[in-house]
């Protein structure tokens, strides 16, 4: 009886080690592909989400139900095999890089806990679902480009510039720009939305805050990007095309993305301070 019990424990530990090793390999592959895509916000967001999800799994390691079955194991292995096979054909940016973490977590969840145990990983799957959502999808529901052009035009007008708007075009006396879907700030809003879910999953919040935090994330992403669009309109109006290219396509565009994350981080820290128990001197 003792020998059998010891063999069972050893087998369980080895099984967990295999899962950790497979997960580490999948993480390394996805981050490598994200780095090769030359999209900095994709790499930084993927890294942040992987770290957070790994920490969440580690915190729940003693309460996870690790019982799978043959069907779930085969299905999970097929999903992981799909990720590995598809990754070999990726060169540069590919939408698959955004979907692979979601498929990987789903496959690992099936291997570890089976179909019935997937509910334990709903938070992790939700986080990577935000990464997988294409930035063009929200534009099918609402014309974000027009909203960005309107708000950026208001910022320019209140700043004293003579600006007019025609649809998604911002026109100044000496030049203008077009706010296309890629400049509408959807990617930044989705990034902050995912970070807001991390915050809600990892820290206790009230019901009101659970509604406000994602809303604040979307507003911060929208406002910061609108400021960026306004600045690019000014640069075009003053014939600073090199500076426009830097802030539009170069590293300058990532500065605004980082600024949005930092601003949202300060707001989250403020919420945590409000929720902290008050102590008397």
List descriptors.
about 70% helix; three-stranded antiparallel β-sheet; about 280 residues; disordered N terminus; 10 helices; mainly alpha; elongated
Largest sheet geometry: 3 strands, antiparallel
What is the terminal-to-terminal distance?
59 Å
CA-based gyration radius: 23 Å
Q: What order do the SSEs take from the amino end to the carboxyl end, as H and E?
A: HHHHHHEEEHHHH
Please characterize this protein's 3D structure.
With 281 residues, the chain is mostly helical. Helix content is 70%, strand content 4%. A 3-stranded antiparallel β-sheet has the order 1-2-3, with helices on one face. The chain is elongated and about 70 Å long. The model is unreliable at 1-12 (pLDDT under 50).
In summary, what is this structure?
With 281 residues, the protein is mainly α. It has helices spanning 2-36, 40-59, 70-87, 96-113, 122-132, 144-158, 186-202, 207-237, 241-248, 251-275, and strands spanning 164-166, 169-172, 175-178.
